[in-house]
Structure formats: C-alpha cells, structure tokens
UniProtKB/TrEMBL annotation:
Gene3D superfamilies to which the protein is assigned, alphabetical: lambda repressor-like DNA-binding domains
Domain HTH cro/C1-type: 61-115
Protein name: Helix-turn-helix domain-containing protein
Organism of origin: Faecalibacterium prausnitzii
Pfam families, alphabetized: HTH_3
UniProt cross-references to PROSITE patterns, sorted A to Z: HTH_CROC1 (PS50943)
InterPro entries named among the record's database cross-references: Cro/C1-type_HTH (IPR001387), Lambda_DNA-bd_dom_sf (IPR010982)
Annotated GO MF terms: DNA binding
Amino acid sequence: MFQLAIVIDFNDILGIYLIAEGTLKCLNHKDGKLRKEKDIVNLKELRMSKEIDEYTFGKYVRERREALGKSVRGFAEELGMTAAYLSDIEKGNRYAPKKYLEKLMEKFDIPEEDKGTFEDLASATRGYTYEDINPILGGQPLAREALRKFKETNIPEEKCDELWITFMREFDRIAEEQLQYMGEDE
C-alpha cells in the first residue's frame, strides 16, 4: 500500500513523497524537476557502515527535515538557531552542534537504539571524537593498548571486520552470562 504526500510551504512545493512499507522516497523536490527516487538515510543501515564521513550528518538532517515538510527557516526557528547556521550544518560546513543533538533526536523521533548511530554521525563532523567512548578509553589502559596494536599490525580490512565481529560476539556472550547470573541471584 502506498500513500502520497505533497509538502507545500508558502505555496511552493517542497517535495512530493511516496510512502510505502515504512520507507519514504522523494520523487520530486523543490525545483519541480522529476528526479530519480532516493531513500532517506537509514540509521540502522549506517550503524555498521564505512560510508560515514563529515557530510553524512548534514545530509541526514536535511533529508529528515525535508521529510517532515519543514523549510530551513521554519525548522531552524523550532530548534532555536538561525537558518544560515542550519543550512551550514546541512551542507557540512559546520560541526554538528552538541547543544542541539537532543532536540534534533526528539524532532526526528529517533528510537533509543539508533541514538548512538546518530551521535556517531555528529561525531564524524568533529573528526570522530566519540564522547560516549572516550571516557571508557581514558579509564581502560588495556583497551587503548589493544586499539594501538590493532592500528600497528596493518591487518587486511576484511580480516579486521572478522576480528571485530568475533570481539562483539564474545562481548555479547559475556553480557548475556552476566544477565543470567544476575537473574539467578534474585
């Protein structure tokens, strides 16, 4: 089943959207020219992507804002920033603003399980300074040493992926054991 949504702002068609099975596709956008369908950036797909760069956050913000049918000026006003500032963020000319991240996640209705990925996109604009991970590395000398060793070994990329997957599976296994152990104590 499909739904068609036409987004109009001050008598100007911002976009025509085709909504099917929970996805949103932009068929026509602002200038009135029919364009190839494009998917809105999906955070679940980006979670393990190597495609994240300093422009991904801005692209995501722009596509989500447009999907909401908001103009740059109107959305910036809702966020409490200038339209020029929001436009610069969307173009990748400014870092993702830390003080607006929560508000953006709220406006975009980002589920709890995707908030980390959203924050990773924002971190990429600041040169990958991961605020949620840095405190862990600061207090875990073995974690820092393991990452340095990993960097120095020049392991082929496909082998690196295998190692990280093995690490995550082992971490999940240990976490599951801990949950079971805690459940037995109750």
